[in-house]
Amino acid sequence: MTAEPLITLTDITKRFGTLTVLHDISFDIGRGEFFSLLGASGCGKTTLLRILAGIEPPSAGQLRIDGQPMAGVPAHKRPTNMVFQSYAIFPHLNVEENIGYGLRNLKISRAEAVGRVAEAIELVKLYGLAKRNAHQLSGGQRQRVALARALVMRPKVLLLDEPLSALDKKLRQEMQLELRALQRSVGITFVFVTHDQEEALTLSDRIAVMSGGRILQIDTPRGLYDRPTSIEVAEFVGTMNLMPCTVRSSTADLVSLDAGAAGALTGVCPGVAPANGTAAFLALRPEKVRLVTRVGKDDANSLQGTIREVAYLGDRIHYQVAIAGVEKPFVIFSNAAEASQELAAGAAVALTWPRDAGLVLCR
Amino acid sequence: MMRHIDALWVYAVLFVAFLYGPVMLLPLFSVNDGNFATFPLRGFTLRHYASMWDNGAMMSALANSTRIAIIVAVTSTALAISAALAITRYRLPGAAPIVGFMMLPLVIPSIVISVALLVIIIRFLGIPLSLWTVTAGHILICLPFSLSVLMARMEGFDPSLEEASRDLGCSAWKTFWRVTFPLAMPGVISSLLLGFIISFDEFVIAFFLTGTESTLPVFLFSQLRFPNKLPGTLALGSLILVGSTLLVILAEVIRRRGVQSNNPGDI
Questions:
Q1: Min Cα–Cα distance to chain B from A99, Å
Q2: Are A185 and A220 in contact (CB under 8 A)?
Q3: Fewer CB within 10 Å: C terminus or N terminus of chain A?
Q4: Running DSSP on this structure, what letter comes out for residue B125?
């Protein structure tokens, strides 16, 4: 990411009648970045993408792309192109005509247009399908045509609206890798909308997690996973175990918590530490916790629990552990090679983790 | 195997006979070698068909009807395309009542429409009756048919196709010609054929609104007073019967093909 952002959104708001679907959205997207908008359906991510494309006008706020204000610039004059969720392949045109559709609107020679189409067909690996009709294509091929049709325009920004959601799992994983490689090779900024957190983590340089028309957090995949700033983000990205606590005291790098009957616990706070006495949660990732039969002297944090379920997944084992006073059982992942045979359903166990492994989050 | 003849079978045969039997008399008498349309038949001839071309009044009525039908089909289709676009692409306040209003000529008896138009054209507008007034009346009754065919077609395709076209640099106008119109083509063709047939066959409005010149149905009606001219009109009637049937079948085939393909753009 270079210093000067390619896209700048300032206080973008969108209302449909009395319903506000986007509330004062402000952030930047860098040049050449693979940026994802992640959220459940109805969170406003697609609307935001359509505002970037110029298909929907924002109700308020400013949008700049490459320094140019986009207010009043219609979709067909923006340096953006979109891959639609339905792919929107023109059914009356063949593959080649679909890909070349937009080139007629650029001031380029016929020869150059033909060359660009051939190049795009190669780029998305549709060799030999140039004359195929749209309805003779498979889902994956349609997706490639939609991608080529947008890329051939050489946009500054490529907008992708859940482009992989219609594909089956195996094809989707293949396309994820290809999409990432493609983005690196063309160097175009991608803005990618998805509801699939795994997909967002796999593909993106940075991810904006959205909910209810607001941005909850923008960070790298690693940052979102390791340092979620809210319980919503923590639960949306990966699995998170939550232990209700009260803040007892806090120093610059450690928060001491009172977990009632479970005793004293410690954790770190990604933002400003909450005031003493505040109700909070200690959030623990499943792989940060160790299951032991007896608590050792040097274990900083520990909880007592009972194993409910054991699921053997080959490389690792998933345990569900019931903790007194916690509604949802904890989910613990452990390496299958290291797991003890004694850890069977019904067994009483202790959960331990380092002093800074848990995050202190408030509702 | 024994041939199975039951009451239902008899009913079906009678049904078809009553429906199409009278119509079949037209071609039958048109090739009968006699000057009156009566039984017994006298022998085969094509002279009624041959003499048809010499009948100047009949030929000019045929030309009038064809001209009107083409103008009506094109105009009502063009009007219906814009209306269908507006209704299916934009959230119009009061769209439902507007559509209902445009569909109204379907249920109003054409005699009522004719009288109303006659009063308006003569009393309020002061326009002399001519083939143009007939054309206007026909556009009014064809519009609901064109509109329902085209609306069904345009509701059928993915709105993101038009958005994709805009996104790829086409203005609204270019998008219409490069995406919307080609995709609506089956609907456009069946609307044109329907409009042509309806206008060509229409009698009541043409009878009320025409001036000195007549359309074919009006001309045929006037010929009924002269029994010896009947075989000639029967010959023409037979030809029209064949032509109309072919056109209707064509319109239906095109419409069905548009509906059946899962890709709304296949023509």
A1: 10
A2: no
A3: C
A4: I
Task: Give chain B's mean pLDDT.
Answer: 84
The Cα B126–Cα B197 span in angstroms is: 29
Interface confidence (ipTM) of the complex = 0.80
In a 3-state reduction of DSSP, which class is residue A319?
A: strand
- Tally Cβ neighbours within 10 Å of residue A251: 8
> Residues A76, A153: contact at Cβ < 8 Å?
no
Distance CA A125, CA A148 (A): 10
The DSSP result for A60-72, as a single string, is EEEEEETTEE-TT
Given an 8 Å threshold on Cβ–Cβ distance, is B263 in contact with A53? no
Q: How far apart are CA A56 and CA A337, in angstroms?
A: 54
Total residues belonging to chain A:
363
> Model confidence over A199-213: pLDDT tens digits?
999 899 999 999 999
| Neighbouring residues of A137: CB distance < 8 A, sequence distance ≥ 6 | A89, A95, A129, A145
**DSSP assignment string, A148-196:** HHHHTT--SEEEEESTTTTS-HHHHHHHHHHHHHHHHHH--EEEEEES-
Task: Name the B residues in 145-174 with CB < 8 Å from any A CB.
Answer: 158, 160-161, 163-171, 174
List the structure tokens of B49: 């068909």
Cβ distance B164 to A91 less than 8 Å, yes or no, reads no
pTM of the model: 0.79
- Tell which B residues from 95 to 124 touch A, by Cβ distance under 8 Å: none
**Looking at chain A, which residue has its C-alpha nearest residue B182?**
A92
